[in-house]
From TrEMBL:
GO molecular function (one): sodium:proton antiporter activity
PANTHER family: ANTIPORTER SUBUNIT MNHG2-RELATED (PTHR34703:SF1)
Keyword Protein biosynthesis: no
Protein name (record): Cation:proton antiporter
Keyword Transmembrane found: yes
Classification lineage: Bacteria, Bacillati, Actinomycetota, Actinomycetes, Micrococcales
Native source organism of the sequence: Microbacterium imperiale
Length: 102
């Protein structure tokens, strides 16, 4: 089980690093937002999956596995919604930058 957790964590971290490189590399705001939003959400999904697998493997005592899974999935869903909302607001404000629509 530890190998599965390690692979999921490495894949998740790789997506986060690629998203950060896209943020630094791409020329304009919409492409930067796209790179960060997509890659980071997917990376966070893999990291959450690794934590869920780890919780199942360890059999947490203090909290039920269903509770841990529900909380981790809630964190991921809130991050997905927050990223989508923030990207939309930033892209909309960039569109009207310099006094009007481009």
């Amino acid at each position: 089980m530890d190998a599965v957790v390690i692979v999921l964590l490495l894949v998740g971290c790789a997506f986060v690093v690629v998203g950060t490189l896209g943020l630094l590399r791409f020329p304009d705001l919409p492409t930067r937002l796209h790179a960060v939003a997509k890659a980071d959400n997917l990376g966070l999904g893999f990291i959450v999956a690794a934590l869920i697998v780890d919780a199942f493997a360890r059999g947490e005592d203090g909290m039920s596995i269903a509770g841990v899974t529900a909380k981790l999935l809630l964190i991921w869903v809130l991050a997905l919604l927050g990223t989508a909302g923030n990207s939309h607001l930033l892209a909309g404000s960039e569109r009207f930058h310099d006094g009007g629509a481009r």
